Amino acid sequence: MYGAVGNYFYNYALSAKDEKEFLEGNPNLAESEAVMAEVAEALDTADEAFEQEHQPEEVSITSNDGLSLSADLYENEEAGDAWVIVAHGYMMDASGMTRYIRNFYEQGYNVIAPDLRGHGDSEGDYIGMGWHDRLDMLQWIDEVIALNPDAEIALFGISMGGATVMMTSGEDLPENVKVIVEDCGYSSVSDVFTYQLDDLFGLPEFPVLNAANTVANIRANYDLYEASAVDQVAKSETPMLFIHGDADTFVPFDMLSDVYEAADVEKDQLIIEGAGHGEAEKVDPEAYWNKVWVFVDQYI
To answer: What does the alpha-carbon distance between residue 58 and residue 94 come to, in Å, rounded to a whole number?
Structure first.
């Protein structure tokens, strides 16, 4: 019974091959009333024009555990040494990050947008939830430095991508990495899964998450309880901007304080009123990007 429960929830949340039905019609992911339709339409039009004008080059690396990982590269002739690595969210891929790619590109950055393991064109049977992805991110950083040894690099991520860049922040990063921006990332994998278990099923952490963790260790050499953005941020030496919508009920808003308070670096935060999960930029794009550039421009 323990193994059956563990396998079920492992497949439910972490298998890259299984449909994630809980995302469809999830009220915690419904568009909030704070998103202005006319503004959203204008920005969508700008994204579409960018996609038509700028075709990325596909680049790839091989992960430390032998996976072929893919990314979209947007080289910008006017960028000089400014680079950003943009990390997408859960069950998304690089193609869904046009809004963020466009804004960094138009601000004068070269952009690499990876497909995280198990997503898009990257190989992988399981979803890393940012933990194993942090090691892949180190390799993407090395790839940027190989292309431009003088690169000044920003890391940016949203949702699971936000957790990815926070988890990366606690590693031994090269001096080229100057600043990190995370948007609505979770405090730890175990925390967000415990919350989702209760929200979706009314089930307790024990024994369900413990069973799933046993299976994750066996099938993916991956310990859910080790995967902590809080612990990694506490080790970070890189300036960091934290962003969250105060109406986020998918990755609860109070997780922002967990990661922000753990950071012992130059830091700032942006709270967007009325924004649900991943909606901060949609609800108030002017405040969002003004804050990003004011913070990032101090370091790049």
So the answer is: 11
Q: Distance between CA 300 and CA 296 in Å, rounded?
A: 6
Sign of CA dihedral 121, 127, 129, 134: negative
pLDDT at 193: 96
Helix (H, G, I), strand (E, B) or coil at 56: coil
Position 5 scores a pLDDT of 79
Alpha carbons 253 and 74: distance in angstroms, whole number: 32
| Prediction pTM value | 0.97
DSSP E strands: which ranges in 120-221?
Answer: 152-158, 177-183
DSSP 111: E
Strand pairing partners for 37?
Answer: none
Question: How far from chain centre, in Å, is Cα 12?
Answer: 20
pLDDT band of residue 82 (cuts 50, 70, 90) is very high
Q: pLDDT band at residue 106, thresholds of 50, 70 and 90?
A: very high
β-strand pairing of 57-62 with 68-74: antiparallel
Alpha-carbon Rg for the chain, nearest whole angstrom, is 18
Residue 103: alpha-carbon gap to chain centroid: 17
